[in-house]
Amino acid sequence: MRIQLIMLLLLTCFFTASAYAQEEEKFLFPPVPDLSELVMTGEAQVEAVIDPLRVQLLDGRIVQLASIDIPDLTPYDTGDLGMAALEVMREQLVKKTVKIYQSKDTKNARANRMGYHLAHLVEKNGGFWTQGALIANGLARVRPSKHNAEMTPAMLTLESEAREGKRGLWADAKYAILTSETAASGLYNWAIVEGTINASAVANNTVYLNFGPDWKTDFTIGIKPDVRRKLANMGIDPLSFANKPVRVRGWMESYNGPYIELMDPVWIEPLPAQTEAASLDNN
Fold first, then answer.
1. First CA to last CA distance, the chain
2. CA–CA separation, 122 vs 137, rounded Å?
């Protein structure tokens, strides 16, 4: 009887440990990519995590994570996603030394109007890339600003994998990618939209990509001359986008229907026709 009890205890411990290991394996730690688009501006110890997007360093500086967004985070409510991100950041960063990677643009991209330093953070010893980990586990979305677009391709890859795996926010229907037909439901919010461009036109030096036959009511993307020049430097003519499926992200305004002004070329991704169709079917 005693032997049977011992065996039962051993089996219980084994299965408990296995379940715990499986639970631990659920959180993904993507490898640190090539960060040569950025420059390492220093190392510092993290004293505290202020909120899911900001940390305070031992020297008092506040660093805000560049190029990501947590959709349910507001000044008054951290939300479930924010709480999950907060716990991860506290566990991985507090009292640890991080490498600080910032844009090479010293004039516009290293600080915001609040004086917070904008950066990617990588834990020095374990290689925890904060932005990558939050995105890979569906705790954040990619949201590059006009002046902080570095590392977007690597982050978009992780976001796509998280979305396909329905991790974190991507398991919630309210964060699903919008279609050009449902874009109006995302008004006055940051949104991601997929659809096939119906036609393109130029008016007052702005390129308009229309997703339906009625430009006064259908979803539209606006591309100002500065972004058009960036696209041209990449060998891309936005007027050639007609009849092609794309994914676009940005702030959804109301301007002759739902409207996103493209702030940077990384905000728009060409899609294979079958990818768009599959995405729309899933949503």
1. 56
2. 16
CA 110 – CA 187 distance, rounded (Å): 29
Contact in structure between 164 and 135 (CB atoms under 8 Å): no
The letter for the amino acid at 166 is K
Q: Are residues 157 and 182 in the same domain?
A: no
Report the C-alpha dihedral over residues 84, 85, 86, 92, rounded to 10 degrees.
110
Q: What is the dihedral of CA 129, 135, 139, 140, to 10 degrees?
A: 110
Q: Are residues 186 and 265 in the same domain?
A: yes
Q: Which of 174, 193, 190, 192 lies closest to 74 in space, CA to CA?
A: 190
In the three-class reduction of DSSP (H, G, I as helix; E, B as strand; rest coil), residue 6 is classed as helix
Question: For 119-139, what is each residue's pLDDT tens digit?
Answer: 999 999 988 999 999 999 999
Contacts for 217 with CB less than 8 Å, ≥ 6 apart: 256, 257
Range of the domain at 57: 39-166
HSE value, Cβ hemisphere, 13 Å, CA-based, for 231:
22
How many structural domains is the chain composed of?
2
Average the pLDDT over each of 14-18, 35-39, 51-55, 185-189 and give the range with the smallest value: 14-18
Chain segment 163-178, per-residue pLDDT in tens:
999 999 999 999 999 9
